[in-house]
Each structure stands twice: as structure tokens, then as C-alpha cells.
Design goal:
6 helices; 33% strand
């Protein structure tokens, strides 16, 4: 299981700067979510995201601090990984995953991962850099985007997996040059042992700087809860937020 964060902004900020004074609380969640971290940054107008992944605990990583405090941009995804049982801790299994201008992070488990293989275009299966269910989920997303376009493709992928696979959570964030899409689709009765009931909840903060969305476990007073079984589409030009039923 994992922790997710994503932001889009009008001006350029470092990740920690945009997240604000409680960012270190979020980073400290890597004491349990300790199986790797990754950041995908994608400024409006960029062709491809800048990707950094490391199979190490974020709060103990000098590289993480460098990336969190250093490069400034107007959009990024951050992932803290807690590896699904049986999946190795290595760079190839560390989120985010990317395809062209699209970046993707996921929190949850989909069982069995191989159940999604028939839903993924063959060329995408051949390019996978790891063996996670999350990367396969992204493969289904890209396959459906090719057929239906960005938003309709994401919604279709979630519905397809939801109807055919056992899963704990399909929570995901997708970043492109023009939009950030948040998927909140999870089973409230499949929270990991020892975690609070709100473990899979996602909250967002919208202010004059832009929009920040994140998993729970750190200070989020005044933020807005995203309802389960919903997708948010955030326009990176206007910061308007549109909600879809999944």
C-alpha cells in the first residue's frame, strides 16, 4: 500500500514548498511506506515528465530531500511505496510509471495482477519495467485512453478492473500537461491491518497557488474530502475541478 500526493500550480514551486509547512509529516509516513519513493514532474508545455525513483525510504534519503526541496515546477506526483506482499523492492517496481506525457501513481492492491493482462495492448505489456499490479493497472489505463481519450479512457479502465478483479483500492493520480485526474475508488473493508479507517481517503486543497491532493496521515485541516467512487479532473490552465461518478 502507498501514500499519494499530487499538485498543479500557476507558478513554479518545489514539491515541499507547494505542500507547505507540514510536508515533513507526509515524508515521515515513509517510516512505514518504506519500500521506495518516486517523483514525476511535468510542467505545462513539457513533452515528457522528469522521473526520479529510488527503492529506498524517503525520510532517510538525501536524494529525496534534494528532489523535494530543489527543482521547481508547476505540476508533480509523489509516491511513497509500501510493497504488496511478494513484490520485490527495486527501481522497476517503484512508482510513478510514465508513458509519453502521462504520469501515474497508485495506492492499493489488485488480485491477481495477471487478470489484467488481457486488457492491455501487447506493445505496452512488452515495455513494462517491473511486475507490479500497479504498472498493469496503468497499462489498462493507457490502453483505454488510446481508444476513448483521456478522461473517458481512465473511467473505462477503472470500471473494467472493478468489474473483473478483486481489489483493495484503485486510488490513483494521473498527470498530463493539461490536466490532473484523481481516482478515488476503494473498498472500505479492505484497509490494511493496523491502519485507520480513513487510510484510503483522499483530500484536496485549492487556494491561490493551485490544487494539492494527498492521502491521509498528516495535517489536512480545512481540506475537502473526495467522495469514494469519484474521479476529479483538474484543468491545469484554469484550475477548475470537475467531478465524475466512477
Amino acid at each position: 500500500m502507498c501514500r499519494l500526493m499530487g499538485y498543479v500550480s500557476e507558478q513554479s514551486y518545489s514539491l515541499s514548498e507547494f505542500a507547505g509547512p507540514h510536508f515533513d509529516q507526509f515524508a515521515a509516513l515513509s517510516s512505514r511506506h518504506c519500500d521506495g519513493w518516486g517523483v514525476a514532474g511535468l510542467n505545462v508545455g513539457d513533452v515528457n515528465p522528469t522521473l526520479t525513483v529510488e527503492p529506498a525510504q524517503a525520510s532517510k534519503s538525501a536524494k529525496f530531500r534534494e528532489i523535494a526541496d530543489g527543482p521547481k515546477g508547476n505540476g508533480a506526483l509523489l509516491h511513497l511505496r509500501w510493497a504488496t506482499s511478494g513484490l520485490s523492492v527495486k527501481a522497476g517496481n517503484t512508482h510513478p510509471f510514465t508513458h509519453g506525457e502521462i504520469s501515474f501513481i497508485h495506492n492499493g492492491g489488485i488480485m491477481p495482477a495477471t487478470a489484467m493482462d488481457s486488457m492491455i495492448d501487447a506493445d505496452l505489456m512488452g515495455r513494462m519495467r517491473g511486475e507490479t499490479d500497479s504498472e498493469r493497472y496503468f497499462g489498462v489505463v493507457v490502453t483505454q485512453i488510446r481508444k476513448l481519450g483521456l478522461v473517458d479512457g481512465i473511467v473505462s479502465a477503472v470500471r473494467q478492473i472493478r468489474s473483473t478483479c478483486t481489489f483493495s483500492s484503485l486510488n490513483a493520480m494521473i498527470l498530463t500537461p493539461h490536466q490532473m485526474i484523481i481516482v478515488n475508488e476503494h473498498n472500505v473493508d479492505r484497509v490494511p491491518a493496523g491502519e485507520p479507517a480513513d487510510y484510503y481517503d483522499l483530500y484536496f486543497r485549492k487556494d491561490e497557488k493551485g490544487v494539492l491532493v494527498a492521502s491521509t496521515g498528516w495535517e489536512q485541516r480545512g481540506w475537502s474530502l473526495i467522495s469514494n467512487h469519484r474521479a476529479l479532473v483538474i484543468d491545469r490552465a484554469t484550475f477548475a475541478i470537475e467531478e465524475f461518478i466512477l
